[in-house]
Known about the structure:
GO molecular function, one term: hydrolase activity
Low-confidence stretches: 5-34
CATH class: Alpha Beta
Number of domains: 1
Helix content: 25-40%
Number of helices: 10
Region (Disordered): 1-43
Oligomer: single chain
Protein name: DAPG hydrolase PhiG domain-containing protein
Cofactor: Zn(2+)
Mean pLDDT: 88
CATH architecture: 2-Layer Sandwich
Keywords: Hydrolase, Metal-binding, Zinc
Order of helices and strands: HHEEEHEHEEEHHEEEHEEEEHHH
CATH topology: Alpha-D-Glucose-1,6-Bisphosphate, Chain A, domain 4
Amino acid sequence: MDSGQLRQRTASRLSAISGQLSAPSSPTDAQTGNIMQNPDANGYPEKVPITYYPLNTQKAYRHNENRMKDKLYAKYCHRELYLYADIPQYIREQMPAEGVLPIGDSPRLLEPGYHKHENGWRMLPDGTAYVTSRTRFPGSTGDMVRWWFWWHSVEPERYALWFPYDHLSGRSTYADRLHRTDLSHTQKWLGSTHRVTEFIGSQKMTVHIHFVDPAQYDLPWDKLKAAGYEAAVCAELRDGLLPNLKIGDFLHLWRKTEDGLELRSRYWLGGGIHYKVMGMKVGIDYLAGALGFKKRMAGENIAYEHFIHDQTEFTNLASFLPDLYGDYMAGRLGK
């Protein structure tokens, strides 16, 4: 899919409410040097509805709605999904190359303020898909986030709750830990692998998400906490058929705000590819790029679609997480 087709698809993804979409300034208007001003200094922008869903994801929604109808959390299965009105400007075209954060520079996320490009997507020269995304979590706490990352893996319907059009199933290798009361929230998911099946755009894919300590990315928890972060979820992405084949990484870092949290995410999809054999890493990253494997696996289309996917799923999660967690704490969700 070329860039012209991508821009055409973008136009049909969002509501044609011109007043809402024209309100935000261009991405460079609020920037000084390498630091972006607080996007929410004057309050949150309005939300705009998402109006385009590929047919197969519409079928997935009906399937998810039906299997959740008798669940105690069914009311949180949202048919209407939204983005904040300042986000469409970042969907329309690739971010500039200078906005890409190399994975080795992840400690820059400890710096105060904001990077020049907190939202965007881009295909790198070797085919790696890079995504940077900032979403708002008003009313949420770090404890809610840590709870969610084990609670949603108890049964596939809970994973679908997160993005009912795109999420199909998710299973944890820590299934035997999930109902233990002697473990913390984090101990129920950190170190585990979740096998998830979902749509990215119209493409159905399965991937293994292996949760790792943020220190692996030079982001030890003591430094994250000192920088104002309340929660961190970091992972290696591994192939759906070959769990020993690493195909990417992501960082999700929740930072404290006046009214809750903000999530700063970074993805390197198709980057740092290696295969583990008997505990040893066999690097094939260069070969994967040279042979065009990265462009087929990730590339421009996945970068574009994954930015929209991330913004949608986390904006939706933020809309119900405080209430869902409240129901859990009050014993209204069962086990």
